[in-house]
Amino acid sequence: MKDVKAGQAFDFVVKAEDERDNSTPSFVNTESIKPMAPTNPKVDDGFNTYGWTDGDGEI
Q1: Do 35 and 54 contact (CB within 8 A), yes or no?
Q2: How many CB atoms lie within 10 A of CB 55?
Q3: Do residues 28 and 11 lie in contact, with contact meaning Cβ atoms separated by under 8 Å?
C-alpha cells in the first residue's frame, strides 16, 4: 500500500465459500483496533537506559 498514514482506518470484507457455494461475509473495520503503543517513557542517562510502560491496545 502506498501513502498509508498513522491513524487511518480500513474496512475489510472476508468471504469464503464451501462446497455448496454457501458464504457469509465478515466485515472488519480497523478504526476500533488500538495499537499497543508504549507510554510513560523513562530515560536514565546515568545508567544509559530507556524504559516505558506497555500500552492497553490490542494486537
Answers
A1: no
A2: 13
A3: yes
Residues in contact with 31: Cβ distance below 8 Å, sequence separation at least 6, in sequence order = 9
Long-range CB contacts (within 8 A, 24+) of 41-44: none
| Terminal Cα-to-Cα distance of the chain (whole angstroms) | 20
Rounded CA separation 28/58 (Å): 14
Q: Mind listing the pLDDT tens digit for each residue in 24-51?
A: 888 988 887 766 778 888 999 999 999 9
Is the whole-model pTM more than 0.70? no
